[in-house]
Fold these 3 entries.
Entry 1:
Amino acid sequence: MSAYIGLDVHRDWTFATVLDQTGRVVVQKRLPNEHVPSFVGNFKVEKIGLEASTHVVPLYRALVREGYRVEVSHPRKTRYIAEARVKSDRVDSKAIAELVRLDALPKSYMPPPEIAALREKVRRRAFLVRERAKLKTKIRGVLAYEGLKPPEGVDWLRSLGLEPVDCYLRVIMVLNGEIRRLSLELKQLAGLDEDVRLLMTIPGFGYYLALLVKAEIGDVSRFRSEITFAVMLVLFLQRIVVEAWLGMAGLLVRVAVGFVGLCLRLPRLT
């Protein structure tokens, strides 16, 4: 008997619903996350569904390693769950199982481990750069409060003897070191990646922006058509627009120009 399983995953535990091919509930059970692989091993599993969340990734990878067909739903598109009048783990897991059985689960892209690792590195660098920018803004605020001119160099700032400024400078020095180390690592990755080297031939694309595009888009072949790929580019561009409001207008211009070039040069998706 084929089984379709819906998992409502939380930090430490999961609520599972198992349906047969007719949609009849075989079992519903709450169990610790680490026990889920052994639990699903008791059934002839056709497919497993999970709703995307922060805690889903370890369980998803564990189930994939065991050879199961696993689909992760897009929470904003799973209206069957979001619009349910009764909300509970039991109801949600059953809804996921039912959508999996009907092959109607709106899927969320789960990047392979190597792309996930690249995403983490690229996003970590962006985070560190943002934190450094915030500290520089704090220094300007201290100087304005003291009635001093804008910064004229690190040595001048240190000569002021202002405790807040000295504190921010110490943290900035640590961030500078981490950003340099991470940038060097990313440059090396860019030089070894054929896709990234190709992206870097587009005007406006440096090593970091090329890695950012690859990390966020992932495998181009996952898109059904050029239109769906273009939609993904637009969504990505919207995220860059938000960053542009934080003073990254130059990056926005480079991304816009680069995406136009990328779309013109991409082969047709099959």
Entry 2:
Amino acid sequence: MSDTEEPPSPTVSESTGVPEVASLVGRSLPRIMAVANQKGGVGKTTTTVNLGASLAELGLRTLLIDLDPQGNASTGLGIENRGLELSMYHVLMHEEPLDNVVEPTDVKNLFVAPASLDLAGAEIELVPAFSREQRLKRAIDAVIDDYDYVLIDCPPSLGLLTVNGLSAATEVLVPIQCEYYALEGLGQLLRNVDLVKRNLNPTLEMSTILCVMFDARTKLAGQVVAEVREHFGEKVLRSVIPRNVRLSEAPSFGQPINTFDPMSRGAIAYRDAAKEVHARVTS
């Protein structure tokens, strides 16, 4: 199937209540992708960091925005998030220009807007704020011409930080763990995406699903991937990210996998995923 062809409509699961999703269409640069899944521990930050680094490796200027107060995407790229003078907290709460927050990384073409622990308080502080859902969008709009890709690492919740990420993005990328209950909560995420689309961001679409933590030794992993493909068709990348020790070790060295161990199975899989994501761009 070519990138411009319409895929078959995905099946709706009665058991998960997952609503139908729009068809895959050709994309144009720049692309703003929110990486979201309210379940924790599903490889969301790992995917944001390593997909971003792999896109940068393709020569695409990529900005990673860390919206998770834990700041793991920042530290995973070698940015110490304690004692930062400026962070995403200042962008959201004090309307600091995003340009003043962005830091270069050791990977050419890859930049990060780091999170700090202060961001945990922003969830509450944003509640009475004017135009609270659109603050990140305004900040990105001011710098978007400098980048080919913006990847937003959303926290594992459906609060105001995630709503800001969804309001600013044009696409949602969902990493799904290849384990039992993988689709649990996905219906709620898609309903929230639809709410944001109808009320705040009419261009938003859940465009991409990436199956992660795939363990080829288990039959269950293959069954989960098959079920996800049945539900979502061409939105699911052909590339599957394996369980890989080197992927787990890389963040503690402040490096993405493609510099930490470029020939590991994890690095190769994320490179393939990045090529597949970018192949959806129409010239």
Entry 3:
Amino acid sequence: MLICLLAGVMTNLNTTAQPLNYRLALDRHWGSAAAALEIQKRQKTKPSTDAAAATADPYLWVTQHTKTYNQHWVEEGRPTAYEPFPDYPYIPTLFKLLDAERIIWFEKSRDLLLSWCCVAYLTRQAMIVPEREVLFQTQKEKKAQQLVKYAKTLYSQQPQWLQDAYPVTKPVWSQPDLELHFVSGGSIIGIPGGADQVRSYHPWGYLLDEASFVVEAGECFNEALSAVRGKIILNSSAGPGWYADARKGIVRSQDE
């Protein structure tokens, strides 16, 4: 059976998208960057203009071409765990703000999908712009893994033709829990709290999620100012500490 399947895959390699998925699954070496580039060259199911149009606007992309997951979908009576972003009226404005400002601060309440929106904004950048690296930082490594999982879900919930237009270096769920890499050189890296974690990178984009609860949040922000050349996004629900003070212009001495 395995030999027959591989034979069918090789026969149709130039004409259909589906056998390419089998090839990736059956040959672990096919996930290399060189192989993925070859897939991109051979893929004929959709023209690149369609992919560019689908990802031209972040709101269009998240509401029509990808999906989030909802851990509480059963309790909420939803038909499935995976659904597009809801058409909440503030979400288009949020994406416009992210486009307009280099540094942006968000104070949030829960259940606004703000972390999802921030992750989506930066994931799209890493996916469509070659060599664009973004960092997700939050309290603990486990939480950083969750943010990267958001990004992986957004990528994997796209239609296959859109994934083929922006291929990854190897299957999404085979990549490390804190990383997502694209053939174009774009990448997403998750890191835990701590200013020393930021110093190793020089990304285009940076998200400090739940900043009120991140160790050395102020120092992390200062490091980001030096390292990041593009977007710096900070968001948090309510909590005491540096983030609350910084938002209100309060400067405290080290003794306070």
